[in-house]
Amino acid sequence: MKIGLLGGTFDPPHLGHLIMAEHVLEAMHLDEVWFVPSHVPPHKQESALVAEDRLRMVERAIEENPQFSVSTVELEREGKSFTIDTMKQLQNQYPSYDFCFIIGGDMVQHLDRWHRIDELQELVQFIGVGREGYQLDSSRGVKLIDIPRIDISSSMIRKRLAKGKSIRYLVTHQVYEYIKEHSLYVSNS
Ligand SMILES: Nc1ncnc2c1ncn2[C@@H]1O[C@H](COP(=O)(O)OP(=O)(O)OP(=O)(O)O)[C@@H](O)[C@H]1O
Ligand SMILES: O=C(O)c1ccc[n+]([C@@H]2O[C@H](COP(=O)([O-])O)[C@@H](O)[C@H]2O)c1
């Protein structure tokens, strides 16, 4: 089985995540993409929404695609969600699977700062996809795949919601409904 791992904060999951997963699945002839929500994102300053809501939204975002699933491996682990720990755990659990790790163009240039990156690179092939506003950089042997550039980010969605603006069509219908139902990201000020 060839599996692409898409790690992220998914605060919230948006169409950019789904489009990148679909295009890498196709280009790399993967069997599945597993979305891996982080418990505590290693390099983000802002604290994310509670894990429960992020997980539920990812489940809803991917529910129509039988080749997408979610792994709770990081949510079940304490502390920061370092990718090296996730890879070791998954490779132990699924020794015959061939994993790659999918990242956006904004992350490629920061790989040098990842925890135990030299060791991690020996364990897994990174796949970098184009992201609007970022140059695709082929450092550290990352395999680059250009995909339709979708200028959507979770932070843009959070900001729009805080200002009472529409996020319709930036997320799936199911995620849209979940956010509305639970009044997520609404500014209290
Ligand atoms: N529109 C996009 N195009 C390409 N890659 C993306 C896009 N959105 C997210 N990614 C990548 O998906 C992975 C998970 O992203 P994450 O969940 O942090 O979302 P984000 O939109 O980058 O969030 P935020 O705006 O809060 O930083 C990262 O590797 C990120 O680079
Ligand atoms: O292991 C690390 O040092 C590391 C540093 C930064 C990011 N990551 C992983 O990269 C993925 C995307 O990160 P983020 O911050 O955009 O959600 C997510 O799975 C993170 O756990 C991992």
Overview of the structural elements:
It contains 7 helices and 6 strands. The longest helix is centred in the first third of the chain and has 13 residues, at 15-27. Helix 2 (51-62) runs antiparallel to helix 7 (173-181). The chain has a single domain, classed as 3-Layer(aba) Sandwich (Rossmann fold). The chain is globular, with a radius of gyration of 16 Å. With 189 residues, it is of the alpha/beta class. A 6-stranded parallel beta sheet has the order 3-2-1-4-5-6, with helices on both faces. Adenosine-5'-triphosphate is lined by residues 8-11, 16-17, 20, 103-104, 106-107, 129, 131, 150, 152-155. Keywords: ATP-binding, NAD, Nucleotide-binding, Nucleotidyltransferase, Pyridine nucleotide biosynthesis, Transferase. Residues 5-160 form the Cytidyltransferase-like domain. It is an enzyme of class 2 (transferase).
**Strands, total number:** 6
CATH-defined superfamily: HUPs
Give the distance, in angstroms, between the N- and C-terminal Cα atoms.
49 Å
User: What structural class do helix, strand and pairing data support?
Assistant: alpha/beta
Number of domains: 1
* Tally of DSSP helical segments: 7
Q: What is the CATH T-level topology?
A: Rossmann fold
Q: Main beta sheet: strand number and arrangement? A: 6 strands, parallel
Compressed to H and E, one letter per element, the order equals: EHEHEHEHHEEHH
Q: What characteristic shape results from the CA principal axes?
A: globular
**How much β-strand is present in the residues?**
15-25%
Topology:
Blueprint: E1 2-8, H1 15-27, E2 32-37, H2 51-62, E3 68-70, H3 83-93, E4 98-104, H4 105-108, H5 117-123, E5 125-129, E6 143-145, H6 154-162, H7 173-181
The structure holds adenosine-5'-triphosphate and nicotinate mononucleotide.
The site of adenosine-5'-triphosphate has 18 residues, from helix 1, strand 4, helix 4 and helix 6.
